Amino acid sequence: MPEALKRLIHNISLLPxxxxxxxxxxxxxLLSTNENYLRELRENILTIKEKTAICHICGAITDxxxxxxxxxxxxxxxxxxxxxxxxxxxxxxxxxSGGYSGVYHVLWGAISPINGVFVWxxxxxxxxxxxxxADSKIEIIIATNPNLEGExxxxxxxxEITKRKLKxxxxxxxxxxxxxxxxxEYADTMSLVSAMxxxxxx
Length: 202
Ligand SMILES: [Zn+2]
Description:
The protein is an alpha/beta fold. 40% of the residues lie in helices and 16% in strands. The radius of gyration is 20 Å and the shape is elongated.
């Protein structure tokens, strides 16, 4: 096999969720596809970091050089409802469901000491700043995944809000159970809309 092809297969195999034979198939696909597609792909990969930014309010991904995302910047959204999600993909899934009109906060993960993810690795500080800065009572809607990490994250948030004496400013709720997949990212629209509508106070 030519060296260049071997190197390409190696590069592709380093991507997550790609197994060795899949990497080989993808490399052959790239080799046989048209030049325009390859040029566009190369351009998008090379510029993805400079063309995106992180919203400095909620932590979502936005178009660079904007530092506030379209949701945080939208006065039609209910800014007294903050839905806390683990990943940006969860935000996208909830947005696609169309069943939520508040704003978000992306933690970029969930507490998982066993995997080396600790409180300080996640986007909590800005969430507490948002709560502290709020003029009126806000609802924090916990939309973490229903697993050990999601539960640990919810417990930390609840304890920290009490410890920081912010309880009077916050109504804490969480999505009702009943998402067929268990995970927000894979939930279907109907389940998400009803999980949001039937959210319970904690
Ligand atoms: Zn934002």
